[in-house]
Design brief:
Strand content: 15-25%
Largest sheet: 8 strands, mixed
Strand order of the largest sheet: 4-11-10-9-8-5-6-7
Structural class: alpha/beta
Order of helices and strands: HHHEEEHHEHEHEEHEHEEHEHHHEHEEEH
Distance between the termini: 35 Å
Radius of gyration: 23 Å
Length: 446
């Protein structure tokens, strides 16, 4: 904890408010350690139970995390808006930033022509009473999902994959319920689970998706929901194979006490076949967003599932945000219908695959086994994340530390390939090899 920020308060409410204020202002940075309960209680002149309640309330809201022997710390990305000065600092001047996980802006389809066409077309104004999912968009979405073997009867929309997952979890679970999530897995999802007051159970993954034994263990531990990334898993690039899908479907068949959520965020960018689990359980949902292939600012995801689940999500949306903008829906529909956009997305997927596979090959030549079966990321196990990230920073490369994505998985770093050129692969692989296996200083035993 920063020596400049002093905690205060005589009640649990005052103590928790002071900690939240420190996080919001940046005085308590992500990962900052808080005093042990008894030590802070002695400093403030209150009972340990009072401090424990304050910490518990902040943990339930996803601001703090208990890290075993490392004590209580601020979460890496707590769900409270911080001042801009407290946000993640940019990479060092001149460094290549491979940490953000964004698609290559050079390969995104231009939106200008389609926006101009929408503006010229105008169309009738949408009223509060008749807004919702455009029938023509639903028809095209169902056809695209059916082509990949996804049953698409009941359908609604969400404002992106994470928004859809949040609505699904809120429709079926309550604070304190357990959710089975991939480990390592999507950092945003781990943060969301914490913010909702849910309890994550990590499920190990390999290149073919979640391990069957890990899912079985999570079910035995009381998981009420399971979130699976179909393809281009973030951060490892895993994709559910046909064999893994068959085994998981057999394990999950007929479960009436489990919500199954599948996230196919990469959609058209994935160069591996889709093997959906949809329908394996009584309660299920399949999400496909448009942000990765068409641009991060397009906040729309198609959500299909069983009748009850989709009705709950659509009903909750109706009394909240109301609907996903029909202007955005019309824009996405125009992109889907444009053969030139299809070709651009196909070329983008091919380019990502070439860069990802090229980096994996270059790392293998250095004796480094890494993972990246699909998508835009490569996951490289390392002995120590801090030293690896520091060494890469000093060499001019910024990567994401694996701690953002892990629950109990071993250390690693995530490298996003979307901004790389082919000529970058060899020097990057050499820098990664040095960072993963640093040469000890002279005089140290080897």
């Amino acid at each position: 904890m920063s020596a400049r920020y002093q905690l205060s308060g005589t009640t649990a409410v005052e103590i928790s408010a002071g900690i939240e204020s420190g996080i919001r202002t940046g005085a308590l940075s992500p990962g900052a350690a808080l005093p042990p309960v008894r030590a802070l209680a002695a400093d403030l002149g209150v009972s340990p139970a009072t401090v424990a309640r304050a910490y518990q309330e902040l943990r339930q809201r996803g601001l703090l995390v208990t890290a075993g022997r490392h004590g209580t710390r601020v979460r890496p990305r707590p769900p409270v808006a911080a001042r801009r000065s407290a946000l993640r600092p940019p990479p060092l001047p001149g460094a290549r930033d491979l940490s953000r996980g964004d698609p290559d802006h050079r390969l995104l389809p231009p939106l200008g022509p389609h926006l101009a066409a929408l503006a010229a077309d105008g169309g009738p104004s949408v009223s509060y009473s008749d807004a919702g999912v455009l029938p023509e968009l639903a028809e095209v979405a169902r056809a695209r999902l059916a082509a990949d073997g996804v049953p698409a009867g009941e359908l609604t929309l969400a404002g992106g994959a994470l928004d859809g997952i949040e609505r699904l979890l809120g429709a079926h679970l309550r604070p304190g319920d357990a959710v089975a999530v991939e480990d390592p897995g999507w950092a945003n999802l781990l943060d969301l689970v914490a913010a909702l007051g849910l309890r994550p159970i990590g499920v190990p993954v390999d290149d073919e998706g979640p391990l069957v034994a890990g899912v079985a263990a999570a079910l035995a531990a009381g998981a009420r929901a399971l979130v699976v990334t179909s393809r281009a898993q973030n951060p490892t690039g895993s994709a559910v194979s046909a064999g893994r899908a068959e085994a998981l479907r057999a394990l999950l068949a007929g479960r009436r006490d489990l919500l199954l959520i599948e996230d196919d965020h990469a959609a058209e960018l994935a160069r591996v076949p889709l093997h959906p689990l949809a329908g394996a359980t009584a309660s299920w949902a399949f999400l496909r967003s448009v942000s990765k292939p068409f641009g991060p600012d397009l906040r729309l995801a198609v959500l299909v599932g069983d009748e009850t689940t989709v009705a709950r999500v659509a009903g909750r949306t109706r009394v909240g945000a109301g609907w996903v903008s029909t202007v955005l829906q019309r824009l996405v529909l125009a992109l889907w219908r444009d053969p030139a956009v299809d070709e651009l997305v196909r070329r983008a997927a091919q380019s990502y695959e070439q860069r990802r596979d090229g980096l994996l090959t270059a790392l293998a030549e250095h004796g480094l086994p890494a993972h990246g079966r699909s998508g835009i990321n490569v996951w490289l196990p390392v002995p120590d994340e801090t030293s690896a990230v520091t060494a890469l920073r000093d060499a001019g490369w910024a990567v994401a530390p694996g701690a953002l994505y892990r629950i109990a998985a071993p250390p690693a770093v995530r490298v996003t390939v979307s901004s790389l050129d082919i000529d970058d692969l060899a020097p990057l692989a050499a820098a990664l090899a040095h960072a993963a296996n640093p040469t000890p200083p002279p005089g140290f035993p080897t």
